[in-house]
Amino acid sequence: MKTFMLRKEDIERKWYVIDAEGQNLGKVAVTAANVLRGKNKPTFTPHIACGDNVIIINAEKVVLTGNKLEDKMYYNHSGYPGGLRERNAKTMKEKYPVEMVERAVKGMLPKNRLGRQIFRQLFVYAGNEHKHEAQKPERLEVK
């Protein structure tokens, strides 16, 4: 029996919307990463971006458990000496909720060209509104 390998021409992409309100950040990120990667499909092929498009709404209302709001740190470096910038999760949630959710999902994708290609299929919005109604996205529940 031959192993099934999906071709780029045969990919059918759907659109899903995930409501992050009251959900744990990690669970939202895992659900989104699996759908983006295509692991929820029987036609999953590891070397092709065969996943679906994901829209995450209400990123500002995502939940972090424990002391993560004060203890979890996010780091950026400009590349210049002394250019390290660090913020805790509370600051990120208040000022940059979209970036916080995007970083969580991106950390669960492959670190190569394929991962960067897959990441382009993610759309995160801080509020309840999004601009992808024309694609008729289906609601996806976080488990």
Summarize the structure.
This protein is α/β, with parallel strands linked by helices.
Describe this structure in words.
Helix content is 29%, strand content 17%. The N and C termini lie far apart (34 Å). The chain has helices spanning 25-37, 68-71, 89-95, 97-106, 113-119, and strands at residues 15-19, 53-57, 73-77, 84-88, 122-124, 138-139. Strand 3 (73-77) and strand 4 (84-88) form a beta hairpin. The mean pLDDT is 96. It is of the alpha/beta class. The radius of gyration is 17 Å and the shape is globular. It has a four-stranded parallel sheet with strand order 5-2-1-6, covered by helices on one side. Helix 1 crosses helix 4 and helix 3 (89-95) packs across helix 4 (97-106). The chain is built from five helices and six strands.
- Physical arrangement of strands within the biggest beta sheet: 5-2-1-6
Backbone shape = globular
Indicate the low-confidence ranges by residue numbers. none
Order of helices and strands: EHEHEEHHHEE
What helical percentage do the residues reach?
Answer: 25-40%
- Rg: 17 Å
Number of strands: 6
Mean pLDDT: 96
The number of helical elements comes to 5
The SS-based structural class is alpha/beta
Biggest sheet layout: 4 strands, parallel
N→C terminal distance: 34 Å
β-strand percent reads: 15-25%
Quaternary state of the chains: single chain
